[in-house]
Design a protein that fits this description.
heterotrimer; A mainly alpha; B mainly alpha; C alpha/beta; A: mainly alpha; ABC transporter involved in vitamin B12 uptake, BtuC; two-stranded antiparallel ribbon; globular; C: alpha/beta; 6-stranded mixed beta sheet; 4-stranded antiparallel beta sheet; 9 helices; 10 strands
């Protein structure tokens, strides 16, 4: 079998397994864990557009998550607007905010940029915590917003069972991965990589680095907001500390970094490896050894940065290619 | 009306202490050119060391400095040497070592949660605290005595570090490296030794800050987080690498925090601090007292 | 056809006047050399022309159009490309990827950009290294990559900033050949160089600057025997023969 066919077959198998999983795995707890896993994979992949391709370190992405969540929830609670529309509107809001943030911050040095994104994220959280009403919209400050589970159904993105949520986030994840792949092969992808690695050289080669970064930021924030809406509809309760949290921003960034930012598989890989660690240690060790998963996180992060700064995807991809070579014929001709 | 002056003074005192917490950060940032996200954790470690030193020995909190300063210095020195140096070496050609920022964040996670694991989440404060709640009355205003001690400690530490950087050989080496590390190493200055020492000094400063906080602040594993972000804001406000900037920047924050609540909620005050931070970042990123380095 | 016209160019950095009243022109199809002692202001002049920063005074015209405040990327699209004295390859990417970035200037399609890139790589003899990571190339190859990238943008005027530095004499001769060949194929060159054998062999005309000011201009032989230039820069071996 040729390499190409083998890869197509594996991809097909993967799809079948992931779509078929809920039929086998009936427990809502496990489904919930998987849903969150896919959610994080989605978030890290969206983050990757800016944090990986554009080469900067944004540490305030939870702000966009929160914008999505709050926009759709407020519109739904006050005006009965479907969360699907809320997704689009929340995404656009997040995009605009993202560009506004990006305009002054992309000019800064890496460390300053990271700090500025933190400040924006935290500033937004503080703002939402303090405001009860933004114009006609009720944000309810630190008490948060609760969505009553009436009118369930696809139109309102609200379900009694976990299965529909599972499929929605799975489709979102696949979509965002395909989008990332398409971008990486396109002019924007090349330009982003060039601008992230050597901005002066890229400019001299016709790359408007600042504009490309802003485009990436607009996309990234839009996508992240969609996830926020999904989360709001999943948990039916949002408040500033849960959706605009610094911890979330950091977690997204670090999972992506450990997995390998700048690559397509990296962020997903990071989520696949680290989320189970996090869940596992919280469930089993949560009482005796609190915070264990964060210690593991921190240690893994440091080790990866010392030994594999391009992320765990690098050795794993190499191993994968070696495996492919062994299992298929004529490995190099086709590439 | 008097309240404002009282708040102002207490704000300046507390601000100087904030500045002290940020002092180490600015030294490390100025020399190594990295944001040490673990700084709050180092502060927390300093507080725990001070707490245990005082509780076990029954000494006056400020006497704990004898223990805290050398311990923290070497802790920082070896932390840099063992954990951070390898990354620096790997990223020698990269202009902005982002990876080091990531590593210090990993350190932050580890330190905070290891402390949580070992000591538990409860709040601690020292018993038989000779400084607890003591107030000095001046003309109808009440000035906090522990904060006064802290203020003095901050000024003294700042002066001591300044003197060290200006008058000693190693200090000059540190300043040279911060201006141009390649040129400095070509002059025979061991770059990584300088980094280690700078990190040691920064951590020791965090230790001193910890000692000043212990008399009136609760000690618990995640206490560092509050000071972490504030520290960055102060450092950017005052100018990276500027010692006077750190103290003065801290005072500005301290004043905003203590005068602010007279006019608005505490969280809005927090928001003002963030807004000011962003303003400085956009308008004068080198800070109020910083020098424009091309790094 | 005057492809580049620089009129009374001045660049100040605070109190330092790096470029002082510099004027020069380049005709289409020419190779103009720019030489001068270290710190004379050569790279600064380049940066002003290439849009890295705007001039403090004076004007720069490209094909008759004033380009004083243009961005490097806009200039690149108009046909003005440059290389860097300290090479800046996209080290983590392959040689082909590097050059393809340049190839995207006039197209949106990856296939076309890559096609152009492969064409350039074949021409400049880097084709067999196209899948190597740029960070692993020798310095000579990196310099060629630098030129290849700029070439992929389809420039009419190419500013070369010390492309010969660090090359061995045989590599220098090869590079001179490549540049002359490219000129015969329609590209105009503006070259900063320190390596005398290269600049003398390449240039149709040479401009000499010292402390930011033009102190001489003419054909290579004229420059070599100019007293002022010798005094400032060249040294006895290249004196009057």
């Amino acid at each position: 079998m040729t390499r190409e066919n083998f890869q197509k077959l594996s991809a097909a198998l993967l799809l079948i397994v992931s779509f078929g999983l809920p039929l086998v795995l009936r427990s809502p707890t496990y489904l919930h864990i998987l849903i969150l896993l896919y959610l994080y994979a989605y978030l890290t992949t969206s983050w990757n557009l800016v944090g990986g391709f554009a080469g900067v370190l944004p540490l305030g992405h939870a702000a966009f998550f929160g914008i999505g969540a709050y926009t759709s929830t407020v519109l739904f609670l006050q005006y009965g607007i479907s969360p699907w529309i809320g997704m689009v509107l929340g995404g656009i809001m997040a995009s605009i905010v993202g560009v506004i943030i990006g305009l002054p911050t992309f000019k800064m040095r890496g460390a300053y940029f990271a700090l500025a994104t933190i400040a924006f994220g935290e500033g937004m959280r503080v703002m939402v915590e303090n405001i009860d009403y933004l114009g006609p919209f009720n944000l309810n400050g630190p008490r948060g917003l609760q969505i009553p589970p009436l009118n369930v159904g696809l139109a309102n993105l609200m379900f009694v069972n976990k299965e529909p949520y599972y499929y929605i986030i799975l489709i979102m994840l696949i979509a965002v991965l395909m989008l990332t792949y398409t971008i990486s092969c396109s002019k924007l992808g090349y330009y982003l990589n060039a601008g992230g690695e050597e901005p002066e050289a890229a400019k001299a080669l016709g790359v408007n680095v600042a504009r490309c970064k802003l485009i990436a930021m607009a996309m990234s924030s839009f996508l992240t907001a969609l996830a926020g809406v999904f989360y709001a509809q999943l948990t039916l309760f949002i408040h500033p500390k849960s959706v605009i949290s610094l911890d979330l921003s950091f977690e997204i960034a670090f999972i992506a970094l450990i997995g390998g930012r700048g690559s397509i598989a990296g962020p997903v890989l990071g989520a696949l490896l680290l989320r189970p660690v996090s869940d596992f240690s919280r469930i089993y060790f949560g009482h005796i050894l609190p915070g264990l998963h964060l210690i593991i996180f921190g240690t893994v992060l440091i080790l990866v940065m010392i030994f594999q700064p391009r992320g765990l995807q690098e050795p794993l991809t190499k191993a994968y290619h070696r495996l492919l070579d062994r299992l298929t014929e004529n490995p190099t001709e086709k590439e | 009306m008097w309240f404002i002056v009282e708040d102002l003074i207490n704000g300046i005192l507390m601000g100087a202490i904030y500045g002290l917490t940020a002092l180490g950060l600015t030294v490390i940032f100025g020399v190594l050119k990295v944001i040490n996200f673990a700084h709050g954790s180092l502060l927390m470690v300093g507080m725990f060391v001070a707490y245990w030193a005082v509780t076990l020995s029954g000494l006056h909190p400020y006497l704990a400095l004898i223990l805290v300063i050398p311990f923290m210095f070497f802790f920082g020195y070896y932390l840099q040497d063992i954990v951070i140096k390898p990354i620096f070496k790997a990223e020698k050609d990269v202009r902005e070592p982002i990876t080091v920022i990531i590593v210090t964040t990993g350190l932050w996670y580890i330190l905070d949660n290891l402390t949580l694991l070992i000591f538990g989440p409860q709040y601690r404060n020292i018993q038989d605290n000779p400084l607890r709640g003591k107030m000095l009355e001046i003309g109808g205003m009440f000035i906090s005595v522990p904060k006064l001690w802290g203020f003095s400690a901050a000024i003294l530490t700042a002066l001591a570090i300044y003197w060290f950087l200006q008058r000693t050989r190693m200090g000059r080496a540190i300043r040279a490296t911060s201006l141009d590390r390649d040129a400095a190493s070509l002059m025979g200055i061991k770059q990584y030794k300088v980094y280690n020492i700078a990190f040691g000094i920064g951590t020791a400063a965090a230790g001193i800050a910890g000692v000043t906080l212990v008399p009136f602040y609760n000690v618990f594993p995640s206490v560092g987080v509050l000071f972490d972000i504030k520290g960055f804001i102060i450092v950017v406000l005052g100018g990276l690498g500027s010692i006077s900037g750190a103290i003065l920047g801290g005072m500005i924050i301290g004043v905003i925090e203590s005068v602010g609540p007279q006019f608005m909620t505490a969280t809005w005050t927090e928001g003002i601090v963030y807004a000011l931070f962003l303003l400085v970042l956009f308008v004068k990123p080198s800070g109020l007292f910083g020098v424009r380095y091309d790094w | 056809m005057k492809i580049l016209e620089v009129k009374n160019l001045v660049k100040n950095f605070g109190g330092l006047r790096a470029v002082d009243d510099l004027s020069l022109t380049i005709e289409e199809g020419q190779i103009l050399g720019l030489i001068g002692p270290n710190g004379a202001g050569k790279s600064t002049a380049f940066n002003c022309i290439a849009g890295v920063y705007p001039p403090s005074d004076g004007e720069v015209y490209f094909f008759g159009e004033k380009i004083n405040n243009h961005n490097p990327w806009d200039l690149c699209k108009k046909g003005l490309a440059r290389t860097f004295q300290i090479v800046k390859p996209f080290a983590s990417k392959t040689v082909l990827y590097n050059v393809t970035v340049g190839g995207y200037v006039h197209t949106e399609k990856r296939a076309k950009a890559e096609e152009k890139a492969l064409e350039v790589l074949k021409y400049i003899d880097l084709y067999d290294k196209k899948d190597m990571k740029a960070g692993k190339l020798t310095i000579a190859d990196r310099k060629r990559l630098e030129i290849a990238r700029a070439l992929a943008t389809g420039p009419k005027l190419l500013l070369l900033d010390e492309v010969m530095a660090g090359l061995r004499p045989t590599e220098v001769d090869k590079m001179v050949e490549i540049i002359k060949d490219l000129r015969d194929n329609g590209i105009t060159f503006f070259v900063i160089e320190h390596i005398m054998r290269a600049i003398m062999a390449l240039s149709d005309r040479i401009v000499v600057i010292h402390y930011g000011q033009k102190i001489s201009e003419g054909r290579p032989e004229e420059i070599a025997s100019d007293e002022r230039v010798i005094k400032a820069y060249l040294g006895e071996e290249y004196g009057v023969s």
